[in-house]
């Protein structure tokens, strides 16, 4: 596990490539930060997208009612100046009166109410509809600077949702002409964030300019150019020749190798994404199968050398985890049971469960092939005959929905949200096929945490839920991920603990 032939060859190639270029370093001469993204950028409206690339862009172009402080996890005012709970299901939001859209028009309470009501409507078919529909009954204008939100029930995460998912649009944006146009902002985005769109060639290049009428602190860099460059090698060549200042999702060894040259700097930080092995404890694939036995599930946990996986296969700031959530998330109680790496103990538990010679186990995976193979190797070492099925994510999702998967290696990034709610609801409520525990009481417990506004009570509920998941070994938690970047030596790019890249906070050295 300590070596990977592919990584070694790529690292060597990176060093050779680096030394073949002259040291023409990108710099601040034209005050333009040039960034690369491998994924195609086709739609600028985050109300209709989901990927991490679109989240990064939304941070640049959009502003929300509230803003999450990644250091303290506190919700700070942004377009909203404050809020008041009239009662448990009625929330009054007060707005700034100096917020402008990128076309120069002023943001109004009507715009805010329209945005939320539209996204909450099934007609919108927005990617954010599921988030809003959990809690929003209707949004009502109560004055030129106040909006009243009527909730369906008690929901303590309203401010969180307002801070990271709902991007404000002008009233009538999607249906003002009498016809529905869900792509109204896909290319010609008019929003309220620190940067405005100067030009956009879908799938090729996006040019952003600092919005001088932005209501908040203006970014230090005047222009950002984001190019779609699918090939990581091309990105590296551009960075070293001065054509790029920023690239992300860089393999660790490549980032370390190029960061050791004078042409680039390597930056590594935390990422809220975690990896885990989900086990069919409910017996969907086999009602009498070995995974329905808690001793077998505990044996699997003991068999996995998660520390070495984190250190040698993920690298950077990645760490082994023992909970079904990221340790940095609110409510992720680290006092839950931890299963130390102990192959001998794993074999004892298998024998106690009635499987002294092991059993065959099909494990599905869709990413991080080296880690997938390490999982298979560790389980094989204790007698479990692993059939590793490495497939596309879409195939895995379909098979899981059909209850055809006994175990799978999955990951979850929580949308950059440092709250256990962002992973617990998706994986352990009765609303998701990702929940393979079959534990109705656990599902009820997880959802109950979203039905109280008392933060201490929420923490207690999540602590109980995370503890139960650990005790029953419904998962085998593996590791957190690390975010690796390559930067121009003249770029200052601060990293935040939630792992979300905020290019708007960049500056020149």
TrEMBL record:
The keyword Signal applies. Residues 1-26 form the signal peptide. This is Hemin-binding lipoprotein. GO terms for molecular function: peptide transmembrane transporter activity. It holds the Pfam family SBP_bac_5. It comes from the Bacteria. It is found in: Periplasm. Its main location: periplasm. One of its GO terms (biological process) is peptide transport. One of its GO terms (cellular component) is ATP-binding cassette (ABC) transporter complex. Keywords: Lipoprotein, Signal. Belongs to the bacterial solute-binding protein 5 family. Residues 75-423 form the Solute-binding protein family domain.
């Amino acid at each position: 596990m300590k070596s990977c032939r592919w990584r070694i060859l790529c690292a060597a190639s990176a060093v050779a490539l680096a030394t073949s270029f002259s040291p023409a370093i990108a710099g601040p001469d034209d005050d333009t930060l040039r960034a690369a993204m491998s994924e195609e950028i086709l739609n600028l409206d985050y109300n209709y997208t989901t990927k991490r690339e679109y989240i990064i862009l939304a941070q640049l172009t959009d502003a929300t009612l509230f803003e999450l402080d990644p250091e303290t996890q506190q919700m700070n005012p942004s377009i909203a100046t404050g809020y008041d709970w009239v009662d448990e299901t009625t929330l009054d939001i007060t707005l700034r009166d100096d917020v402008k859209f990128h076309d120069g028009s002023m943001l109004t309470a009507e715009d805010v109410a329209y945005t939320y009501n539209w996204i909450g409507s099934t007609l919108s078919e927005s990617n954010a509809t599921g988030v809003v529909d959990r809690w929003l009954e209707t949004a009502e204008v109560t004055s030129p600077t106040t909006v009243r939100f009527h909730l369906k029930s008690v929901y303590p995460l309203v401010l969180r949702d307002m801070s990271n998912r709902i991007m404000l649009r002008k009233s009538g944006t999607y249906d003002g002409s009498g016809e529905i146009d869900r792509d109204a902002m896909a290319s010609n985005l008019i929003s309220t964030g620190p940067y405005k769109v100067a030009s956009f060639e879908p799938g090729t290049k996006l040019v952003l300019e600092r919005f001088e009428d932005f209501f908040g602190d203006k970014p230090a860099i005047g222009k950002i150019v984001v190019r779609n460059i699918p090939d990581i090698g091309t990105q590296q060549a551009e960075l070293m020749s001065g054509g790029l200042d920023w690239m992300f999702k860089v393999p660790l060894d490549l980032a370390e190798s190029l960061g050791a040259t004078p042409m680039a700097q390597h930056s590594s930080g935390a990422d809220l994404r975690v990896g885990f092995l989900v086990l069919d404890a409910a017996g969907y694939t086999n009602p009498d199968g070995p995974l329905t036995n808690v001793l077998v599930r505990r044996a699997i946990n003991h068999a996995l050398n998660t520390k070495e996986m984190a250190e040698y296969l993920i690298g950077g700031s990645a760490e082994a985890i023992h909970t079904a959530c990221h340790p940095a998330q609110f409510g992720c109680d680290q006092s839950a049971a931890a299963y130390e790496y102990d192959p001998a103990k794993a074999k004892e538990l298998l024998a106690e469960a009635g499987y002294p010679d092991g059993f065959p186990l099909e494990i599905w995976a869709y990413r991080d092939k080296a880690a997938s193979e390490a999982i298979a190797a560790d389980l094989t070492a204790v007698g479990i005959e692993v059939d590793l099925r490495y497939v596309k994510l879409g195939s895995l999702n379909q098979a899981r929905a059909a209850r055809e998967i006994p175990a799978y290696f999955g990951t979850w990034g929580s949308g950059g949200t440092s709250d256990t709610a962002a992973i617990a609801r998706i994986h352990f409520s009765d609303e998701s096929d990702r929940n393979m525990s079959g534990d109705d009481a656990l599902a009820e417990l997880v959802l109950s945490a979203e039905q109280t506004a008392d933060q201490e009570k929420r923490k207690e509920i999540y602590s109980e839920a995370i503890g139960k998941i650990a005790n029953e070994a419904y998962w085998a938690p593996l590791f957190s991920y690390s975010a690796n970047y390559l930067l121009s030596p003249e770029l200052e790019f601060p990293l935040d603990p939630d792992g979300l890249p905020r290019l708007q906070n960049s500056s020149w050295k």
